[in-house]
Amino acid sequence: METILINTQNNSSMFDYLIVGAGFSGAVLAERLASQAGKRVLIIDKRNHIGGNTYDHYNKDGLLVHKYGPHIFHTNSKDVYDYLGNFTTWRPYEHRVLASVDGMLVPIPINLNTINELYGLHLSSSEVENFLQSKAEKKDRIVTSEDVVVNKVGRELYEKFFKGYTKKQWDLDPSELDASVTARIPTRNNRDDRYFTDTYQAMPLHGYTKLFENLLDHPNIKVMLNTDYKEIEDSIPFKKMIYTGPIDYYFDYCYGKLPYRSLEFKFETLEQDTFQRTGTINFPNEHPYTRVTEFKYLTGQKHPKTSVVYEFPKADGDPYYPVPRPENAELYKKYQMLSAEIDNVYFTGRLATYKYYNMDQVVAQSLTMYKKIISSQPNVQNHNGQKTAINATAAVKARTLGRS
Ligand code: FAD
Ligand code: UDP
């Protein structure tokens, strides 16, 4: 990977693509366009590093930590897993989470053991099914995040595990959030205590940043950091843009700001081998933070010390979570309609499509977008690097809303 300073105005050094954002969405497209289609790519990020929110680094004690909170890779897509496997060795890892409820640490997602431990019972799988059925408040229509949980496990468990956590995380009652948010957390009548059940669950052996260095290690890819794209879009020539930042920022908030939820991370390194029983402990009911994660479980690192992160939700700050609720979807749709009018800018990723996507989903989205881009350009370089005609005059930057 080469980091550059650019001072060029002539067409021969014009970039085929300016990619805004060096997270998974942008980096995957950079890799594909450079290595498969022979395109010249400039990928730019306003932060001082690549990797987007998955960025990890060794702290001053030599412990590998995730700067923007714990990132655990899981997917059902063999394509995504295999694709990323070209850039990292995988270390198998299945994440397990306990929730602090009624003075106990019990498995979340709620499973057979959760119910037995919480209520001092010895139910079997079929008995717990009946137990939950008897508690469930059946809903005709599942619309909100409250509906999803109450419909499955009833109000009492909803209040113990979901109501407080969700209020903290989103500053909204679950009844004000789309069903999709709490639907991320299943309920199980067996003893499976893994947080995810995806076919592929693994961590990049040497971390995400190393994976990104490998993704971007191509002579056709230049990386520019510490730069907002608006600072250079008029001075660095490029043909097309791929934008993975917040969509409302791209359009200068012309319809108003889209709400995003942010987090404050508090890191601590402790002079002990391990701190807690499992990778993450959730606190639905006490403390201002939602969860505590101990990185050594995720990274597999052996070290005499250990590092943990506390997540404190907040309204302002880096835009980490789109907030899934109807009025925000409406607002996003207005921006999306604007974006659809622009020919030579592609919008993709969690922020530009305002979707609560996991890593594998944005990778899949970028791989699909790559195919779409290539299929819409019949005369592009082939895999062997033999050039065919490309219409440079079509490479003007389309702009809307009076921006130059
Ligand atoms: P990002 O990673 O946000 O990258 C966008 C990049 O664009 C950023 O680096 C940003 O600096 C840059 N940018 C924005 N605006 C500009 C601009 N104007 N100019 C230049 N650069 C700009 N997913 C999982 O699968 N498993 C997990 O365990 C998991 N845990 C998570 C925990 C937290 C706390 C958070 C917030 C997310 C988690 N995710 C997890 C989701 C995961 O982070 C995202 O799916 C993924 O990182 C999205 O990639 P992206 O490239 O779309 O966006
Ligand atoms: N959630 C909850 N209690 C929990 C875990 C999750 O109420 O113990 C709800 C909460 O609304 C959270 C959502 O389910 O925001 C999704 O949880 P997940 O762990 O997937 O969140 P992420 O890792 O994306 O922050």
Verbal overview:
The radius of gyration is 23 Å and the shape is globular. 31% of the residues lie in helices and 20% in strands. The strands form 4 sheets. A 7-stranded mixed beta sheet has the order 9-8-14-15-16-13-17. α1 (24-37) runs parallel beside α12 and α4 packs across α5 (145-170). Among the domains are: 11-50 and 216-258 and 323-400, NAD(P)-binding Rossmann-like Domain (Rossmann fold), CATH 3.40.50; 97-183, no CATH class. The protein has 404 residues and is of the alpha/beta class. β14 and β15 (291-294) form a beta hairpin. It has 12 helices and 18 strands. Uridine-5'-diphosphate binds at residues 99, 108, 161-162, 165-166, 169, 181-182, 184-185, 282, 284.
The general outline is: globular
Helix content percent band: 25-40%
Name of the level-1 CATH class of the domain at 11-50 and 216-258 and 323-400: Alpha Beta
Element-level helix/strand string: EEHEEEEHEEEHHHHEHEHEHEEEHEEHEH
Question: What is the number of E strands?
Answer: 18
Briefly summarize what is shown:
With 404 residues, the chain is an alpha/beta fold. Helices cover 31% and strands 20% of the residues.
Supply database-style keywords.
18 strands; binds uridine-5'-diphosphate; 12 helices; disordered C terminus; alpha/beta; Rossmann fold; 6-stranded parallel β-sheet
Topology diagram in text:
Layout: E1 2-3, E2 15-20, H1 24-37, E3 41-44, E4 56-58, E5 64-66, E6 74-75, H2 78-85, E7 90-92, E8 97-101, E9 104-108, H3 112-119, H4 125-135, H5 145-170, H6 179-182, E10 200-204, H7 208-215, E11 221-224, H8 229-232, E12 238-243, H9 247-250, E13 260-270, E14 280-282, E15 291-294, H10 295-299, E16 306-314, E17 321-322, H11 326-340, E18 345-347, H12 359-375
Parallel strand pairs: 1-11, 2-3, 2-12, 3-11, 8-14, 12-18
Antiparallel strand pairs: 4-5, 6-10, 7-10, 8-9, 13-16, 13-17, 14-15, 15-16
The chain binds flavin-adenine dinucleotide and uridine-5'-diphosphate.
Uridine-5'-diphosphate (UDP) binds at residues 99, 108, 161-162, 165-166, 169, 181-182, 184-185, 282, 284.
